[in-house]
Amino acid sequence: MAPGTRKKPRTYDPLRTRTAVLAQFANVRRTVGDLTPEQLAAPARMGDWTVRDLVAHIAFAVGSTSRLLDLPEPPKAELIPATWTGTAARHAESVAASARDLAEAHPDLDALYAETAERLAGDLEAHPGRRLLAARTGALTLTDYLATRCVELAVHTDDLNAALAAVGGPQTSQDRQALAAAVRVLADALAYAAPGGSTEVRVPPFAVVQCVEGLRHTRGTPPNVVETDPLTWLRLASGRLGWEQAREAGSVSASGERADLSPWLPVIG
What we know:
The protein is α+β, with helices and mostly antiparallel strands. Helices cover about 50% and strands about 10% of the residues.
């Protein structure tokens, strides 16, 4: 499928997306408030990061919304959530450094989360969803940027849970609406990376997309089908889990000669 024939980009409800970001950030904040120094020093599954580094990164990622609202509005949008994923890794090193600087400057993480949440709630109340933000990766509308924050929150909440499970720490629940937005952004990103209509990818109950070049399916059961659950999809799309690992574990089913998604995973890059 040529770029010009893609379906109209998915839109996100401004109120639901704002509510989802605030709700999931509140979920993480409750966990952070209960962490011991030993748990904060535990390794996370992101290079040499500790849980403390990861927690600071989450606050930095969510707080970036407020910082961007302080900047002049750019002239036009350059990205949508589905294309943001392909640009996110370009700034990974500078974002990681900024997050660590934030952690050093705010030893009281609960206070950092309280300050971030309060400021964000006020900023979202003051600005419409169509307001443009000059993100490092390219300009997006506020609502679209918040959809990318749902990806950050959902993926890193899963990272946090994995790290804390290894040391007997508390688990953080995933807000349903934030998880839904994250799954949809990442599913749409796959459809952009592998345009076509020969393969149907299902992540019930949140997303169904068609992708991969080939004979387009129009009626009945598709000849190529991939299906998995939301958390497995987050892990596949973000590179936390490999395609063959997921197949061997039975956490993803794939049928048809064009149902191998490994050439296009992860989609965040």
